[in-house]
Amino acid sequence: MGAEVTVASQRVYEGRLINLRVDTVRLENGRLTEREIVEHPGAVAVVALDEGDNVLLVRQFRQAAEKDLLEIPAGTLEAGEEPIACARRELKEETGYRAESLEQIGSFYPSPGFCTECIRLYLAIGLHKGPSVPEDDETIETIKVPLSDIPTMVSRGEICDGKSIAGLLSVLLLRHSLDFSAHCS
Fold it and tell me: Which domains does the chain have, with CATH numbers?
């Protein structure tokens, strides 16, 4: 498959979090078409696993979905911020926990058909509780769920957020090849 060649690009919206551009591209067959692209700085998502094999989830209202969702802690990269620093920051802000070990276990594009966002997945272990410090516009409840309950919660639609499903199922698939015990006390 050949790459599309961008022949023109026009920024049509600049926002606080995202920008929108319309690219005119030439297809492999020579035809011109337009692609609407949401520019996003990228994000992180953290699967935080405690010594009891429980995962930390946050419940928060999401305006786009118009309901409360259960999610793993996550957030958008700030300008110039390293992804691992963002993962530490978001875990602390949303749950109050800090991790002795934070390891990147993957990354993915949640909507590559129209968005540049790449989400980096992290596993956090060796958790220590402290006060949470959510942002002024966030109301978050932290809950612990046994990791073994996750497949059922996903299949029932209790967890329906894509990044959370990707992160949680990745940890379930990888758990036998990762040495969790080395960091848990």
Answer: 5-39 (no CATH), 43-174 (3.90.79.10)
